[in-house]
């Protein structure tokens, strides 16, 4: 199979299992984002793919070849570090030419390739500048260009945009995705920013506790999260306990919801409803009734916090569909089965 | 904190203490030495104040020139040996566990507590024919019979490198600890073997530190006068040995002072050259 395959990969630090039996296939040319809270094992997994850490068990294959024990410098990959790790003693051009120089490329070829890459990252004419004189965004681009200089088989990025300010980060996400699509290179990005993952990835891999909780397309992850961890980690959601009575009728907070069914045999579950799917109605008209506790008007969106029997539900609406509510008012909440996702426990 | 330029004379008061210390312990003795270097020596006596260039003139002979040349060469060799040995050692040390680092650093610091005399006698025993390390080589069948390795240039060099090595490690250690470990990792992902990464990233990134360390060890080694006497032949004696000889045994203070001043000037000149060369390299 062409692409990257992780087979039962395990990494233990002493008695701590940082990565636990990870299986993942990354077809050639795919953009994968590994997403998870800090300490979930995503960076360790990336470092094992790069060869900077050795797995305790399992195998890593690239285009069918077992590369588990191939030293880093023979893997022909490009990696961008969180600290960027630009060489402070070299100029922009020399930094980008480093992987070519190490491989003994001719001086003219190095220069040609550096010029190509500089124009690709919109920094033509910066070759002779010291890296210390660049802005954060420019350094970011240089680190990317350096990693791509040899047209690597694998492009790995460890929290590459975390040092940039919010606006620049958003712009770089789009730029990085467009660059990857143009080059068709297999790319793996580690991030804890779910917005970043949603923007760039073909496949989002959500990790927690050293395990993959779900690996799917961004919209799939958002619309059909595999479990309550994924649902809660990706975007905002309302998680509600549901129960089925003996007749199979499903109740949420003591109120029956018509048309909703739990998986066969289950009598309890968790329901995930995205805030934008929660519609406010007149009291009594919806499935549930509660009291408005807070309205957060952000201009672009309006979040209404509703308390129902001690549980808080958030509803998000656009200014055009502004709900006519005030704090303390009773409102109804409409829950239709099509917006509810029943999660396995 | 807001910093204002000093307004009144009183604002300069904190400078007084360091200035006084420098004057008492550096400017006055060094000034005295410069003055003495121009004094007239009294045969059989001490010296009388005068202003003559005799002491400097006597120094400008092939013999003293040769000794000066040897001293500088020895100090440069010691400095290069120390840095070449200490750089990879310290680099590996910074990548070890904290506990291991502490053990090594304590061991190195304990070497600093040894006096030059003890180091000298220890090495002369180790290099001797009767009780030296060659006996181990004979026992292992590598050598046919034990022989004395001292006095020789190699013995002087070994002793001095041994003495300066802990200082070298202690000077390099903080810079290497601060060096971002992802720099070498980045070099490896970009295709450099660990050895290549060390020479293309670690060494160039630490160029200024390495230059400073070379200068420090060079100056340290230049002042050594016991080890060359204990481990070397008279042709391995440094200018410091001759200065001691003139000052203490020949009672020729003016000549000793002249040699010391000359040594200081040559040293300063070499250090200045190194710094300028380093600056030029930076600009290029």
UniProtKB/TrEMBL annotation, chain A:
One of the record's GO molecular function terms: ATP hydrolysis activity
Protein location: Cell inner membrane
Protein's membrane topology: Peripheral membrane protein
Record-level GO cellular component terms: ATP-binding cassette (ABC) transporter complex
Source taxon at top rank: Bacteria
Record Pfam families: ABC_tran, TOBE_2
Protein name per its UniProtKB record: ABC transporter ATP-binding protein
From TrEMBL, chain B:
GO process annotations (BP): transmembrane transport
Pfam families found in the cross-reference section: BPD_transp_1
Subcellular location: Cell membrane
Ranges for domain ABC transmembrane type-1: 68-274
Top-level taxon in the UniProt lineage: Bacteria
Main localization, broad class: membrane
Regions crossing the membrane: 12-39, 59-90, 102-123, 153-177, 198-227, 255-278
Signal peptide bounds: none
Keywords tagged on the record: Cell membrane, Membrane, Transmembrane, Transmembrane helix, Transport
Family under the similarity heading: Belongs to the binding-protein-dependent transport system permease family. CysTW subfamily.
Official protein name in the record: ABC transporter permease
The species this protein was found in: Ensifer adhaerens (Sinorhizobium morelense)
Lineage of origin: Bacteria, Pseudomonadati, Pseudomonadota, Alphaproteobacteria, Hyphomicrobiales
């Amino acid at each position: 199979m062409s692409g990257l395959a992780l087979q039962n990969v395990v990494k233990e630090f002493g008695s701590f299992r940082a990565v636990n039996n990870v299986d993942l296939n990354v077809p050639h040319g795919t953009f994968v984002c590994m997403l998870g809270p800090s300490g979930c094992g995503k960076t360790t997994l990336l470092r094992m793919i790069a060869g900077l850490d050795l797995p305790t068990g399992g195998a890593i294959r690239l285009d069918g070849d077992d590369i588990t024990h191939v030293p880093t410098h023979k893997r022909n990959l490009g990696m961008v570090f969180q600290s960027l790790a630009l060489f402070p003693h070299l100029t922009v051009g020399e930094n980008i030419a480093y992987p070519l120089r190490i491989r003994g490329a001719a001086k003219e070829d190095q220069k040609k390739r550096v010029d190509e890459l500089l124009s690709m990252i919109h920094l033509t004419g910066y070759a002779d500048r010291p890296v210390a004189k660049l802005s954060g965004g420019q350094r970011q681009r240089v680190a990317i260009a350096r990693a791509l200089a040899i047209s690597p088989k694998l492009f790995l990025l460890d929290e590459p945009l975390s040092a940039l300010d919010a606006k620049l980060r958003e712009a770089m996400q789009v730029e990085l995705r467009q660059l990857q699509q143009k080059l068709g290179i297999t790319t793996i990005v580690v991030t804890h920013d779910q917005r970043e993952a949603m923007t760039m990835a073909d496949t989002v891999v959500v990790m927690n506790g050293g395990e993959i909780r779900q690996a799917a397309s961004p919209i799939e992850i958002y619309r059909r999260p595999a479990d309550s961890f994924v649902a809660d980690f990706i975007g905002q959601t309302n998680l509600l306990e549901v129960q089925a009575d003996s007749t199979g009728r499903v109740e949420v907070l003591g109120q029956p919801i018509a048309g909703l069914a739990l998986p066969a045999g289950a009598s309890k579950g968790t329901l995930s409803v995205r805030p934008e799917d929660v519609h406010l109605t007149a009291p009594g008209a919806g499935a549930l009734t509660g009291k408005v506790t807070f309205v957060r008007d952000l201009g672009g969106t309006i979040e209404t916090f509703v308390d129902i029997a001690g549980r808080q539900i958030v509803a998000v609406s656009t200014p055009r569909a502004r709900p006519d509510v005030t704090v303390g008012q009773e409102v109804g909440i409409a829950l239709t089965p099509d917006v509810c996702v029943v999660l396995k426990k | 904190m807001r910093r204002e330029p000093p307004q009144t004379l009183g604002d300069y008061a904190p400078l007084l203490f360091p200035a006084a210390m420098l004057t008492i312990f550096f400017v006055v003795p060094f000034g005295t030495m410069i003055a003495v270097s121009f004094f007239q020596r009294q045969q059989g006596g001490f010296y009388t104040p005068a202003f003559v260039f005799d002491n400097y003139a006597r120094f400008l002979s092939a013999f003293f020139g040769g000794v000066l040349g040897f001293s500088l060469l020895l100090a440069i060799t010691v400095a290069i040996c120390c840095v070449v040995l200490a750089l990879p050692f310290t680099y590996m040390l910074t990548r070890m566990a904290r506990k291991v680092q502490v053990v090594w650093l304590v061991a190195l610091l304990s070497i600093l507590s040894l006096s030059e005399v003890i180091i000298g006698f220890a090495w002369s025993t180790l290099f001797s024919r009767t009780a030296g390390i060659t006996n181990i080589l004979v026992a292992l069948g590598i050598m046919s019979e034990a022989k004395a390795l001292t006095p020789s240039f190699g013995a002087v060099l070994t002793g001095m490198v041994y003495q300066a090595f802990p200082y070298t490690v202690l000077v390099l250690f903080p810079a290497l600890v601060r060096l971002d470990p992802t720099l070498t990792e980045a070099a490896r992902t970009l295709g450099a073997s660990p050895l290549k990464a060390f020479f293309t990233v670690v060494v160039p990134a630490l160029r200024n530190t390495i230059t400073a360390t070379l200068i420090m060890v060079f100056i340290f080694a230049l002042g050594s006068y016991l080890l060359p006497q204990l481990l070397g032949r008279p042709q391995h004696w440094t200018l410091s040995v001759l200065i001691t000889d003139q000052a203490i045994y020949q009672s020729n203070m003016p000549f000793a002072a002249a040699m010391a001043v000359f040594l200081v000037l040559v040293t300063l000149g070499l250090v200045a050259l190194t710094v300028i060369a380093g600056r030029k390299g930076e600009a290029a």
